[in-house]
Amino acid sequence: MAILHATADITPTKPELLATWLPTQPWFIGDASALQHLGAYRFDDPDGEVGIETHLVRAGGGPVLQAPWTYRGAPLDGAESFLVGTMEHTVLGPRWIYDAVGDPVYEAVLSTTILTGGTQAELVRDLGDGRTEIVEPSVRVAGTGGHDAPADVEVRRVLDGEAPEGDAVLTGTWSGVTDPVVLAVARLR
């Protein structure tokens, strides 16, 4: 279950970080000044230490882009080249945000989700004073499952309608998209 802190302030905001980081990526396509956030999905870290969230965005008239991020309470050793930035979270404190493809926790969770037929994490908004509410996800994902062997996982950054080959996949749907789109592919080793 992913906890969303309704009373928290985040500086800089996720849209601000997306707007500055995305255009620096080699796979970025579109107009950075017209960034539209289409939705996001989260996974649970089994150890409860790393936040895992993937943003789906469109930049102007470009294709849908996928930006998976991890949120950590301390820097990840050896992952400097994957650092998106830092933010101050008024509930959780300082957070280091990484391009998740460089984070071993994300790779393990994504692989497990694909190979076991898992889905996105349940979202629970903490309203304060011990009150919570369930939040409907803006993006629904599902792994195809049926495998228990190690796999190499490839995250699709540009969701252009092509369906890449793989032994198992993660697909997603979101507002306006009812036919599942391939988001990631697992190839068994």
Give an overview of the whole structure:
This protein has 189 residues and is mostly beta strands. It is 11% helix and 47% strand. The chain contains 2 helices and 14 strands. It has helices at residues 14-21, 104-116, and strands spanning 2-5, 10-11, 35-43, 51-59, 64-72, 83-89, 93-99, 123-128, 131-135, 139-143, 151-155, 158-159, 168-174, 177-188. The strands form 3 sheets. Strands 2, 3, 4, 5, 6, 7 and 12 form a 7-stranded antiparallel beta sheet that branches. Strands 10-13-14-11 form a 4-stranded antiparallel beta sheet, covered by helices on one side. It has a 3-stranded mixed beta sheet with strand order 1-8-9, with no helix packed on it. It is globular and about 40 Å long. The two termini are 30 Å apart. The mean pLDDT is 88.
Structural classification: mainly beta
The helix fraction, in percent, is 10-25%
Shape: globular
The SSE string, one letter per element, is EEHEEEEEHEEEEEEE
Number of H- or I-type helical stretches: 2
Q: What amount of the residues lies in strands? A: over 45%
Radius of gyration, whole Å: 16 Å
Give the tags.
single chain, 189 residues, mainly beta, 7-stranded antiparallel beta sheet, 4-stranded antiparallel beta sheet, 47% strand
Secondary structure layout:
Elements (H helix, E strand, L loop, with lengths): L1 E4 L4 E2 L2 H8 L13 E9 L7 E9 L4 E9 L10 E7 L3 E7 L4 H13 L6 E6 L2 E5 L3 E5 L7 E5 L2 E2 L8 E7 L2 E12 L1
Parallel strand pairs: 1-8
Antiparallel strand pairs: 2-6, 3-4, 4-5, 5-7, 5-12, 6-7, 8-9, 10-13, 11-14, 13-14
